[in-house]
Amino acid sequence: METCIIKSPLGFTKIVGDVDGITQVTVLNPEEKETDIIPIELEECATQLQEYFEGIRTEFSLKLNAQGTDFQKRVWDALEQIPYGKTTSYLDLSKMLGDVKAIRAVANANGKNPLWIIVPCHRVIGSNGSLTGYAGGLHRKKWLIEHESPYKQQSLF
Fold this sequence. Notes:
Helix content: 25-40%
Strand order of the largest sheet: 1-2-3
InterPro entries: MethylDNA_cys_MeTrfase_AS, MethylDNA_cys_MeTrfase_DNA-bd, MethylDNA_cys_MeTrfase_DNAb, MethylG_MeTrfase_N, MGMT, MGMT_N_sf, WH-like_DNA-bd_sf
Order of helices and strands: EEEHHEHHEH
Subcellular location: Cytoplasm
Pfam family, one: Methyltransf_1N
Number of domains: 2
EC number: 2.1.1.63
Distance between the termini: 49 Å
GO biological process, one term: DNA alkylation repair
CATH architecture of the largest domain: Orthogonal Bundle
CATH superfamily of the largest domain: Winged helix-like DNA-binding domain superfamily/Winged helix DNA-binding domain
Structural class: alpha+beta
């Protein structure tokens, strides 16, 4: 497994993967040191993440190899169907997966998503429109949703 750390507007980001695909993208809270050399297996992921943060990329095109249960993988696949700039609720995600009663299990699988930003768990909000739990911290979730919003706040000055 190869690993690198890149700098992003939300902190340092760790990328893990190999020739079989990207297995993990996580945000790191403590100050980390940026990797001097990015392994070839991770270069495309690092490039696409930078393009996302620069506002150039709205979809990722990467070979992914997330490790999880079959149910978790179904939830993560459903997350990838949420369009850039849109949000959905945990309830609606549960309905999309065919079991409205699975809302807690869906929320739990969402929280275990190992591919931060690439599998857009940040696009899932509470039924009342509130920002609810986010492994990377609610301030990051808010930033990501605002970053993807088609309605950008304009400066008056």
